[in-house]
Amino acid sequence: MARRTFSRAELESFRDAVVPDLLPNAPGQVLRLLFVGINPGLWTAATQTHFAHPGNRFYPALLLGGVIAERVDPADGMTDADRTMMRERGIGISNVVPRATAKASELSAEELRAGGVRLTELVARERPRVVAIAGITAYRTAFGRPRAVPGRQPEDLAGAELWVVPNPSGLNAHETVASLAAAYREVAVAAGVI
């Protein structure tokens, strides 16, 4: 089956769209690990699936790290089976800023700080064991921590263990699928997912 493609105009029509959080929603499902992106990209908004751009390495890294057991190819949209698998494993996905842009650099510092407040409220309500924010620069701005370094943070977030992990975007050339897999596995172990 051919992968869906979008024209630039089609993608631009999704600017400022919101992608709903992926959270466990069935009785008995608990949120152990909440991955947090910076904000949805236009491809993510078009497919309504987090980390959906074909160049994004999030799902390949989860698979390589043993965080998920089955391949997820979200470029055409995540399947119901994919969503169920994530929820049953106790994995959720959100964003610091919910609105879609072509680049994270389009977000203002004010939006990131407001997103930090929104995320804190979400974590207080959903009570994950671990929160993993994918992107050190966005974390520093959103939470007023200009000297923060990747890894386990010294403070919790609304009672959840807080980590900053590498951003899986293909634009983050310093990381490989293998290095992302190692970071994501570490937070999954901390959360009790694996």
How do you describe this structure in short?
The protein has 194 residues and is α/β, with parallel strands linked by helices. The chain is built from seven helices and five strands, in the order αβαααβαβαββα. A hairpin with an 8-residue loop joins strand 4 (151-152) and strand 5.
The CATH class assignment is Alpha Beta
CATH architecture field: 3-Layer(aba) Sandwich
- Sum up the overall morphology in one term: globular
Domain tally: 1
Low-confidence stretches: none
Structural class determined from secondary elements = alpha/beta
Task: State mean pLDDT (0 to 100 scale).
Answer: 94
Outline the biggest β-sheet: 5 strands, mixed
Protein name: Mismatch-specific DNA-glycosylase
InterPro entries: MUG/TDG, Uracil-DNA_glycosylase-like, Uracil-DNA_glycosylase-like_sf
Domain Uracil-DNA glycosylase-like: 24-185
Keywords: DNA damage, DNA repair, Hydrolase
